[in-house]
Design a protein that fits this description.
Layout lengths: L6 E3 L14 E4 L3 H8 L6 H13 L5 E5 L5 E4 L4 E4 L12 H14 L4 H16 L9 H10 L4 E2 L8
Parallel strand pairs: 1-2, 2-3
Antiparallel strand pairs: 3-4, 4-5, 5-6
């Protein structure tokens, strides 16, 4: 029997360049990690989307979510691209924010939510971590409150990948 599993990878370095096949459902590099992976500067949103799409076309992952820190995140799929604005929160340490983002996405997917809603939960989870001191964990109440405040994504006018 085959399990219906979705592999999510949050990795950095040369390992990103060696991903192959369609087993990776979601790859979540930071903008710095994406820049290192494609070997060029990514100063504009269009360049960032193109670089993420390049990873999809190479077969590294089916979907790429680029974390942009205070700017939010970019989700690129074969169907298109969306910008997810960040939730404004008081600044904290930032330790674990990326991990919390992936945990929130995983939680949403495990609830049967679509990728878009799950990314919004990930944005809220990362923002909740930003509010915590040091390495303290965020609270479920903060995540839920921030999820309600998380804006809907903005569709970007970029062509879909060739299928």
């Amino acid at each position: 029997a085959q399990l219906d599993t979705r592999l999510i990878i949050d990795a950095s370095g040369s390992g990103l360049q060696h991903l192959t096949g369609d087993r990776v459902f979601l790859l979540k590099p930071s903008i710095r990690e994406l820049r290192e992976c494609v070997g060029r500067e990514l100063g504009t949103e269009t360049e960032q989307v193109a670089a993420a799409r390049e990873l999809i076309e190479r077969g590294c992952a089916r979907n790429v979510l680029v974390s942009l820190g205070a700017e939010g995140a970019l989700l690129v799929t074969a169907e298109g691209a969306q910008r997810y604005p960040a939730v404004e929160v008081p600044p904290g340490s930032g330790v674990g924010a990326g991990d919390a983002m992936v945990a929130g996405i995983t939680c949403g997917l495990s609830r049967g939510w679509g990728l878009g809603k799950s990314v919004r939960l990930g944005i809220a989870s990362g923002a909740a971590m930003l509010m915590t001191p040091g390495t303290a964990s965020c609270t479920r109440a903060d995540v839920e409150r921030l999820f309600d405040m998380t804006p809907e994504p903005i569709d970007l006018a970029v062509p879909a990948a060739d299928r």
